[in-house]
Write a structure and sequence with these properties.
Order of helices and strands of chain A: HHHHHHHEHHE
Number of helices of chain A: 9
Strand order of the largest sheet of chain A: 1-2
Radius of gyration of chain A: 18 Å
Oligomer: homodimer
Helix content of chain A: over 70%
Strand content of chain A: under 5%
Largest interface: A-B, 46 and 46 residues
Shape of chain A: elongated
DNA sequence: GTCTATAGGCAGATAGAC
DNA sequence: GTCTATCTGCCTATAGAC
């Protein structure tokens, strides 16, 4: 069972990475926030790279649970895509960037385990989207311009970029507008009833 | 007249920011690369924030020149959009992220002058794109799903995101595929002759 | 599990000689 | 313009007491 402190460290580190980037926060930032010492942090995580790896692992797991919840709710593909985009919007409402989008920017400076975990996050996102897009084609609710994997890649790219650019403008509506546009353009809804 | 050393400093710093991010390079990195001391760098730029501001200023200027060259070459809107996307592709071929896309990730940690310069970069990009998209509608070469400003925002977001995600995969084709897809979806070409 | 204390290095920056 | 020398502060990390 993970200690409560471990979870609190992950929570604080996660927020710091999502707002400032991996190279712009320190153990001291987390320690002061939790009223601990940096030495105590090393008891829970051997180093910053290991903390970062654990961060991605937890984030990917939670993201997967959110995707599973969308699947469990059922419904047609267009609704699932809207729910997917809203996961991103909820991150921005918290004034954050996607953890792995931020780490994609920091990619050149990351340890090998962190790099592999970042790529795996995107792979899983795209795999889930491919399934939804193929569902949409089967049920006739979506028209794709090309292959489902290509559309999935463009969707993830577009949504991550919309998050990235919306943050300097501090404007959630800007994201929502771009996201709606991207989803509708890349996976056009067949005119519903 | 700017000294040659000043230009060399900007070149080295630019590459470092585009590959590692603003908080993951140091004056020492630049100094060792140019066989200078960090003290000498302070003669040319008062501090890291001022160096960063100068970096964005030059980058925005150069980007503007590239956009002017596209306009000067003339042609219809679809060709201009393809040329625009190829500017991004050329950045990635150099294994870099867009300077301002990277700084958008670092945004929370930037000085006010740097923040303002980053936003201005995106504003100028979008203004140029709006003009191209409106040209396309006028000449009948493009069909937009909605307003030109919204499409322009989605295009910039999409291309920046495609750069961001392509870098971890080290795959230029991945960017090119997503970029083509984004451009075609957000600004559909009216079936040409 | 958390602490004190500290190591060893690197950060950005400055004074003043040349 | 570039240097040497140096400052102050922060960084990650470790040893060892409690």
């Amino acid at each position: 069972m993970a200690s409560d402190t471990r979870t609190e460290i992950l929570d604080a580190a996660e927020r710091l990475v999502q707002t400032r980037g991996f190279n712009a926060f320190s153990y001291a930032d987390i320690a002061s926030e939790l009223d601990l010492t940096t030495a105590s942090l090393h008891y829970h995580f051997s180093g910053k790279a290991e903390l970062g790896r654990a961060l991605i692992e937890r984030y990917t797991e939670r993201f997967g649970e959110a995707l599973g919840a969308i699947d469990a709710a059922g419904g047609e593909a267009p609704g699932k895509l809207a729910a997917y985009a809203d996961i991103y919007a909820s991150v921005l409402r918290d004034r954050r960037m996607c953890l792995c989008g931020m780490l994609a920017a920091d990619y050149d400076t990351l340890s090998d385990p962190m790099r592999a975990a970042v790529v795996e996050f995107f792979d899983r996102n795209e795999a889930w989207l491919v399934a939804v897009l193929e569902q949409g084609e089967r049920e006739g609710s979506l028209r794709l311009g090309g292959s489902a994997p290509e559309a999935a890649q463009a969707l993830v790219s577009g949504l991550e970029g919309a998050l990235l650019i919306a943050r300097p403008y501090g404007d959630v509506k800007r994201f929502e507008s771009a996201a709606r546009r991207l989803v509708e353009a890349l996976a056009a809804q067949s005119t519903p009833a």
